[in-house]
Write a structure and sequence with these properties.
Layout (H helix, E strand, L loop, with lengths): L6 E6 L5 H13 L3 E6 L14 H7 L4 H5 L4 H21 L5 E6 L1 H13 L6 E5 L16 E5 L9 H20 L9 E6 L8 H10 L3 E6 L3 H11 L5 E6 L1 H7 L13 H5 L3 E6 L3 E5 L13 E3 L4 E5 L2 H15 L6 E6 L16 H14 L4 E6 L6 H16 L9
Helix pairs in contact: 1-6, 2-4, 4-5, 7-13, 11-12
């Protein structure tokens, strides 16, 4: 562990949560850190002197605290404070003045915390102590890829033994992460890849070592909602040299309205910022659902695969696969860089093979037919007479990648 003393940005409403925030500051000091207090109160000042006052936060939002207090209602006021807190936190990080962040809040404070966390780079520890931690109230698209959360149990108003236990754990965690965490090494180009476990989709077992031999780092994202959200968030920050987006099932999940979603912008951010994309319709024939809930009536008659006690999958009908294929075309049609779509004609996930429970030749044919007909002209479509989990499929994807590197579409690797 590093011997350096990390500076931890502590954010909260000091006018209503003074005792809790000062307790957190003391724990951070005891753990070997330096608390840097940012007050996001609107109506009053805290009984302590923060390093960054509510007036500083308002100024960072381009306004005054008086204007924020009279902006309309508590929602508009907190949105302005969120903007200022995010901008101020970003500038403090860029100046090298903070090594981690922790925010305390109820639903209002958590709303602000998500904006601040999104403004900070991957690798800077971000911890939120929230009364709505892990709740479905939190939209996946607003959760930073490396955000850590803990439920603020029994602590909505004032200190007590339960609250102290939670706050002390959170403060110790963020100090420890700031002292021992390793920031991402960007010396080699990073390739983003999506998959669904290693039993449903297997191509990364072939592709990852091949790409690493070529001088690239490879990050594989588990496309079960939050993994795709992390993938999209990093892509939106232009964090990849190229992507192998071979599991786009989350597009189908979101289209069908399940909770296993990564948000409405799945399959959009890489193209928006100009990252080259090699794409395939991996597992897009399936819809993931919580295995602990009763199947919705609309899916009750479809073939079902229970992956574990948390998540299960049904196959969508041929017509619904055509809907998803058209949606994929709309998303890829807006890309600002090279896009290749590989169509594995013999199947798009392990359980659709002959003799497997989700085998559906009619549905597969419908998916492939609609992809051929509706993918827009800027997208290069290549059919591969193989299953997506075959080495032949991966070899074709790698050949496209190598060609794009030689053409300068993708930067060369660094051994």
């Amino acid at each position: 562990m590093s011997a350096r003393t990390p500076s931890i940005l502590v954010i909260g409403t000091g006018d209503t949560k003074s005792d809790e925030l000062q307790f957190m500051a003391a724990i951070i000091r005891d753990a070997g850190g330096v608390p840097v207090m940012m007050d996001v109160s609107i109506l009053g000042d805290p009984p302590y002197q923060p390093e960054y006052s509510r007036h500083d936060v308002a100024a960072a939002a381009g306004t005054t605290i008086e204007a924020i207090a009279t902006s309309g209602d508590e929602n508009s006021a907190m949105a302005l404070m969120s903007r200022g807190a995010a901008e101020l936190a970003r500038s403090l990080n860029e100046a090298g003045q903070v090594d981690g962040m922790i925010v305390l809040g109820g639903s209002m404070g958590t709303d602000l915390a998500l904006d601040v966390a999104a403004a900070l780079p991957l690798g800077l520890p971000k911890f939120v102590v929230s009364t709505i931690a892990y709740s479905h109230l939190l939209p996946p698209e607003r959760i930073a890829p490396d955000l850590m959360m803990i439920l603020w149990a029994g602590g909505l108003y004032g200190l007590n033994p339960i609250c102290k236990a939670v706050l002390s754990q959170a403060c110790g965690a963020v100090v420890g992460a700031a002292r021992s965490g390793i920031r991402p090494d960007n010396s080699r180009p990073l390739i983003g890849m999506t998959s669904l476990g290693s039993s449903c989709l297997k191509y990364m077992k072939y592709l990852k070592p091949e790409l690493e031999r070529r001088g690239y780092d490879v990050a594989v994202f588990h496309a079960t909602g939050m993994g795709g959200r992390a993938f999209e968030a990093i892509a939106a920050q232009n964090g990849f040299a190229a992507v192998f987006d071979f599991c786009i099932q989350e597009v189908s999940n979101h289209h069908h309205g399940t909770v296993v979603t990564s948000g409405p912008d799945r399959l959009e951010n890489a193209g928006r910022v100009g990252i080259p994309q090699i794409v395939a319709p991996g597992a897009v024939d399936m819809v993931d659902l919580p295995a602990w809930q009763t199947l919705p009536e609309a899916f009750a008659e479809r073939p079902y695969h229970a992956h574990n006690r948390l998540i299960g999958s049904i196959t969508s009908s041929p017509e619904r696969r055509r809907e998803v294929a058209r949606l994929v075309g709309e998303k890829l049609g807006n890309a600002g860089a090279r896009v290749a779509m590989l169509l594995p004609l013999q199947g798009v996930q392990e359980w659709d093979k002959p003799e497997e429970p989700l085998h559906d030749p009619e549905g597969l044919d419908a998916l492939m037919d609609e992809m051929r007909r509706t993918l827009p002209a800027p997208v290069t479509v290549e059919e591969v007479d193989a299953h997506i989990n075959s080495e032949a499929f991966s070899a074709r994807a790698l050949a496209i990648f190598d060609a794009w590197v030689s053409q300068g579409v993708i930067p060369g690797g660094k051994p």
